[in-house]
Amino acid sequence: MLGRIQVPPEVKRGQPFPVRVIVQHPMETGFRRDYNGKVIPLNIVERLACRYGGREVFRVELGSGIAANPYFVFPVVATASGEIVVEWRDDRGQSGRVSALVKVA
Amino acid sequence: MRLAIVLLAALAAPVLADEPARPVPARNGSAFLSADLRALQTDDFANPMALWVRRGKDYWSRPYQGRSCAGCHGEASASMKGVAARYPKYDAGADEVIDLARRINGCVVGGLGAPKLAAESDDLLGLEAYIAKQSRGLPMSVSIDGPAHATWEKGRDLYFTRIGQLDLACTSCHDASWGKTLLAETISQGQPTGWPAYRFEWQRPGSLQRRLRACFNGVRAAMPPFGSPDLVALELYLAWRAQGLPMEAPGVRR
User: Fold this and answer.
1) For chain B, does the N or the C end have fewer beta carbons within 10 angstroms?
2) How close, in Å, is residue B49 to chain A by CA atoms?
3) Among residues B31, B30, B85, B58, which one has the least CA distance to residue B198?
């Protein structure tokens, strides 16, 4: 599954910096019907988590009230240079992963 | 002297009698959005269309049986610059005016030998968005001369024809009432410069033709099928009407 992640090119130690993530997903609520009146089955991302230097720093559980192609911005405090990894998984077992390198000055 | 001025004016602006007035001042669709949505559109990361632009970029360089878009057209940032601003356009091979989607599919089927991309499919919208993005900020500049003129006239006539149970023409809202409020929304000028766009009502991207179909539906008229000559003619008329306005595709709409 397609996703994008963005972190500032360089961050200061001890300072919070924004992590921006956008995930391509229909986030079908399960309440909608198609043109033929048939229910469009539920299909949502259930869980998205972010690890920084091997430690989980952010986790969100999503419901059917979240719009399609969800977009998240959350602050993380810079500790050491390393990889930021964001992974998610939907109710059908489809998963995705994006990562970015953080350079701490 | 007075005669000279009249003559000069006639030379400077050879306005055809059959050219309807365009909205003044011309404003892009984003001018009628909330500040939040406008900011989202210009944010290259958060604009949800960026996901489809990347999809289009992937398609552009992905080889299909050894051939790819990039194989013929090279870097899209150079070869596709300004291209979307010139569509719909008369195509000698088809001997009619075609839209960008049909031009893309001509290449996909004829050039790559790949299966045709369905209307409103992620790959087609992705390619359209990727190509349109190369024209961001450039002025709309379609040609309505020569063989395209008849199509433009057809589009103009459609634009001014009242249709549907509500008996409204495009002009009823988008010339006579732009800037006014319809339910909770501001009526735009109907400028096509931001398409394909991510429309929040749809929760996904769509083409200008899908948006036009939504207007047909809105006035309770039968929706023409995707790619129909009526929609292409309307697209050409709208593009001419937006002549000179900077492209803002891929856009974000309500």
Assistant:
1) N
2) 10
3) B30
